[in-house]
Design brief:
alpha/beta, 315 residues, 31% helix
Length: 315
């Protein structure tokens, strides 16, 4: 398998209105330049594999002008929309919420609204009820999905969220679920995701089994444009590491793809496979350094984060 990007995700800003304990992004006011993003979109369209765009952050709705401008630009280029990932809690009043979503709809956005909702975000049920109903009123009944991170089970702890007016809610905290396994609650898909940890966190190494190799087919094959302009090949949290950077928004798409072809981490993730590297190349490196792994890692992104930070030389 080789790295073949099919989507561009713009992390348009690092600004966010929440302080979630499980988030690894460095919150700051940094924003992508709109004209740079438009130019990059046209450059990237030269790749026949690019079919759609999506938006992330930070909280992308804090940079509405970017969403509107890139939505209109993508439509003019016949690109499809994936989704906008949001915490759904950025609005001040119901009027503010309705006005903002209506502007996005009027700009032509017809992709999904992905709502990150779980105990880590600490949104109130009342506000999420308003957000979901407003999205459905403007974009339609099948326009939204919920992505909820399963919290570590604490003995004696009660679920953080309670049902409101029959609305779908994230599953109770605790337990485990396969990544990207959708449930249907009141006709809204709910994706239960395990909590992930950076490689320096001891909890990243407490799995019973090693991660299942997928050659980064799940979160990969994406041009992920960070708010500082750096571009990485996937949307997993390890993409914050410079070892995964393959260029910037100001580079030509040919230069970006050439750098991707030479990038050591991309070769490991998409061609050799991180599992194969762990069993073979990594063992030799650790023996030479007289080091050992801290345990078993069940999350491929956490393991990728470890390799980026400790093994790969990016000079």
């Amino acid at each position: 398998m080789t790295f073949t990007p099919t989507e561009i995700i713009f992390s348009c800003t690092r600004a966010c209105n929440l302080h979630c304990s499980h988030c690894f992004i460095n919150r700051n006011p940094q924003k992508l330049n709109i004209e740079d993003a438009k130019n990059f979109l046209h450059q990237a369209k030269a790749l026949q594999s690019i079919e759609k765009i999506g938006f992330s952050g930070g909280e992308p709705f804090l940079y509405l002008e970017f969403l509107l401008a890139l939505t209109k630009e993508a439509l003019s280029m016949d690109l499809l929309f994936d989704q906008i990932m949001t915490n759904g809690d950025w609005w001040q009043t119901k009027e503010d919420l309705t006005s903002t979503l209506q502007k996005l709809y009027d700009a032509g956005y017809d992709g999904k609204i992905g709502l990150s909702w779980d105990s880590y975000h600490e949104q109130t049920c009342e506000r999420m009820e308003t957000f979901i109903k407003t999205v459905e009123e403007i974009f339609g009944k099948e326009s939204i999905n919920i992505q909820t991170v399963i919290e570590e089970k604490k003995e004696g702890a009660a679920p953080s969220l309670q049902p409101v007016n029959g609305l779908p809610l994230p599953p109770e905290t605790g337990g485990s679920a396969p990544r990207n396994a959708p449930l249907l609650q009141n006709d809204i898909p709910v994706y239960k995701l395990p909590c992930t940890y950076p490689s320096e966190d001891p909890r990243a190494w407490q799995a019973r089994r090693w991660f299942k190799e997928d050659y980064c087919e799940g979160p990969g094959h994406i041009l992920y444009v960070h708010a500082d302009g750096n571009i990485a090949p996937c949307c997993g949290f390890a993409n914050e590491n410079p070892a995964l950077f393959i260029g910037t928004i100001k580079d030509s798409i040919s230069d970006i793809m050439e750098k991707a072809g030479q990038n050591k981490m991309i070769k490991l993730c998409y061609e050799e496979g991180l599992s194969h590297f762990r069993r073979h190349g990594l063992k030799k490196i650790l023996r030479s350094k007289k080091e050992k792994l801290k345990g078993k890692c069940g999350d491929i992104c956490s393991f990728c984060d470890y390799i980026c930070k400790n093994i790969i030389d990016i000079d």
